[in-house]
Amino acid sequence: MNEIQTAHDHDYSVTLVTSEMAGELAVSYEELQMKVDELQHQLETMQLQCRFGLQRIAGSDENIRFYTRFASYKHLMAFWELIEPAAKTKMVRITRAKVANFEELTQTRTTKLAPIDELLLFLMHLSVGLLLRDLGERFGIHRTTASRIIVTWSHFLYILLGSIRLWIPKEEVKALLPPEFSAFPDTQVILDCTELNCQTPSSLLLQSEVFSQYKSHTTLKAMIGIAPHGAITFVSGLYAGFISDREIFKLSGIIKCLTSDTAIMVDKGFLVDDLVPCKVYRPAFRSRNSQMSREDVQHTQSIARLRVHVERCIRRVKENKLFDKPIPLSVCGSIDQLFSVACFLVNYQNGPLVKSWSVKC
Questions:
Q1: Structural domain of residue 350, as residue ranges?
Q2: What pLDDT sits at residue 101?
Q3: pLDDT per residue over 20-44, tens digit each?
Q4: Residues 159 and 174 in one domain
Q5: b/e map 72-81, b = 16+ CB within 10 Å
Q6: What is each CA distance from 49 to 38, 55, 114, 216, in whole angstroms?
Q7: Are 105 and 159 in a shared domain?
Q8: CATH number at residue 191
Q9: pLDDT by residue (tens digit) across 4-14?
Q10: Structure pTM?
């Protein structure tokens, strides 16, 4: 008979884990976990250093002020909370694709940047005047993508902030009237013009239209109005630098906002008395053959002390470094929107023009 070989059972040795070994394993696990956490922190730090974003400057109000013109991180986030719902639902993105209708345009793919970082990129372009290549390197995107983000956000903020009523009813203006305006209690708006240098066109005809005698340079010109308490309440479009203050006033559309029981405060160049239904406060002119009377001098000084606030407000707008250098002709199609957005943002970025007005306003 064939012998049947049976497999013999084997005893496998089992190592018993003692309490001492368990303690050593626990300690080793904790050390490894701490090492993993440390490496994770180092990785996140390196990622922040390699790519610019809001979180990188959030801890410094000084950096927030430099890059965005907002007074602090708290101010910036308060503004973001106001616009975030519209940014998620109503923003129309500019892309390279040629689309047939609005519905297709609103469904285009977004960029890899978070929406708030896109806003930061736009504000950095406006506030610091950074070039597209610089912005692309900082945010880790192509410069053409940075360009589309800037155009998208300028259009979005122009529509969104421009749809909010800037012009304040006369009752509200009177309720917020600073005591310094007690001699001019019916003042509705203080107006002044400002100019931006632009690239000189090659066409002699265009040169003559945009050349400003006041600046001795080719410029674009706009009119800005503030309420007596300092808020910007009117922004005109940009016009060729050759145009006069009176003509901008006529074309801007502000006349239809004025009523007979209000008044405007303007500089000497605004000869608009025959255009408006309201009172005009303007510094007095000195006759060639006679000195100004004591009353005219006091009147002129009083108006000058109050008109300086519109000049200070305009200076806030022009603190945006984008306007420091001549505007290239290639961006003249979008500079009107960029300038208007810069004016709209002043009402959100800064505190009152005069500190003593902060409680009342």
A1: 170-357
A2: 41
A3: 666 666 667 777 888 888 887 776 6
A4: no
A5: ebebbbebbe
A6: 17, 11, 17, 45
A7: yes
A8: 3.30.420
A9: 455 555 554 54
A10: 0.79
